[in-house]
């Protein structure tokens, strides 16, 4: 486990946070539902905040999200290189790109904001710049992710789950614009159907920085 991660986070052009420097522990996380909004948007990018069609950037509190992915073999753990990590989420007011939701009244079928993928490097690291997600009816605040191996083959391994966030931080974020235009949220972590299925093991620890928040999420996968 003594190899240091060397990748920098390109959107800021700064060194990686010190807390993200070590290889992942052998932490196996629970898989969760994909949800209705996944699409393979073919967007290989670390900064997923923008809308590709016009370059506009979704407003919100910046979140630097680093996945540190490992392969678990028995009791040993090694970095998982060349795995594709997809991330997708709603914006600050609860809207996803690429979908039409008549219940909420939005049609973003031609949009692709807050979607993208990165391929893990030799240290198992994949990094994204996004925004802290907002809320929508019936769900706690969350981000979706999917990890694929051997993505050129139908026999590749696939793992899908979600990230959740500390309620006290969410409360602070949602007081800010543009999040506060939605009003008070109705579903907390404990009231969320998906969170109750292992969400407490899918909560990355956030660190405040000059722009917003940064976090590293260790995940070990048992690949058969």
Can you describe this structure?
With 224 residues, this protein is mainly β. The chain has a single domain (26-215), classed as Aromatic compound dioxygenase (Protocatechuate 3,4-Dioxygenase, subunit A), CATH 2.60.130.10. 4% of the residues lie in helices and 28% in strands. It has one helix and eleven strands. A hairpin with a 4-residue loop joins strand 10 and strand 11 (213-221). It is globular, with a radius of gyration of 17 Å. The two termini are 22 Å apart. Mean pLDDT is 87; it is low at 1-21.
Q: How large is the count of helical segments?
A: 1
State the end-to-end CA separation: 22 Å
* The level-1 CATH class: Mainly Beta
The CATH superfamily is known as Aromatic compound dioxygenase
> Approximately what portion of the residues adopt beta-strand conformation?
25-35%
Estimated structural class: mainly beta
Oligomer: single chain
Mean pLDDT: 87
Number of domains: 1
Helix content, binned percent: under 10%
H and E order:
EEEEEEEEEHEE
Question: What is the CATH architecture annotation?
Answer: Sandwich
Largest beta sheet, briefly? 5 strands, mixed
CATH topology: Protocatechuate 3,4-Dioxygenase, subunit A
- Could you tell me the radius of gyration in angstroms? 17 Å
- Overall spatial form: globular
| Poorly predicted tracts of residues | 1-21
Based on the model shown, name its key terms.
globular, 11 strands, 4-stranded antiparallel β-sheet, mainly beta, 5-stranded mixed β-sheet, 224 residues, Protocatechuate 3,4-Dioxygenase, subunit A
């Amino acid at each position: 486990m003594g190899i240091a991660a060397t990748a920098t986070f390109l959107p800021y052009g700064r060194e990686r946070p010190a807390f993200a420097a070590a290889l992942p522990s052998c932490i196996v996380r629970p898989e969760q539902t994909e949800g209705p909004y996944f699409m393979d948007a073919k967007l290989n990018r670390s900064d997923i905040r923008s809308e590709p069609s016009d370059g506009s950037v979704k407003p919100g509190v910046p979140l630097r999200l680093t996945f540190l992915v490992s392969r678990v073999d028995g009791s040993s753990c090694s970095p998982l290189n060349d795995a594709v990590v997809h991330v997708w989420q709603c914006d600050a007011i609860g809207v996803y790109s690429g979908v039409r939701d008549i219940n909420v009244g939005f049609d973003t079928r031609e949009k692709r904001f807050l979607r993208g993928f990165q391929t893990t490097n030799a240290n198992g690291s994949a990094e994204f710049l996004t925004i802290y997600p907002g809320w929508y009816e019936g769900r706690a605040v969350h981000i979706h992710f999917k990890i694929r191996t051997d993505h050129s083959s139908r026999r590749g391994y696939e793992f899908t789950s979600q990230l959740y966030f500390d309620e006290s931080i969410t409360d602070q974020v949602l007081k800010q614009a543009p999040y506060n235009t939605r009003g008070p949220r109705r579903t907390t972590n404990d009231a969320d159907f998906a969170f109750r299925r292992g969400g407490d093991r899918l909560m990355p620890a956030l660190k405040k920085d000059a722009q917003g928040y940064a976090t590293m999420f260790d995940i070990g996968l048992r690949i058969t």
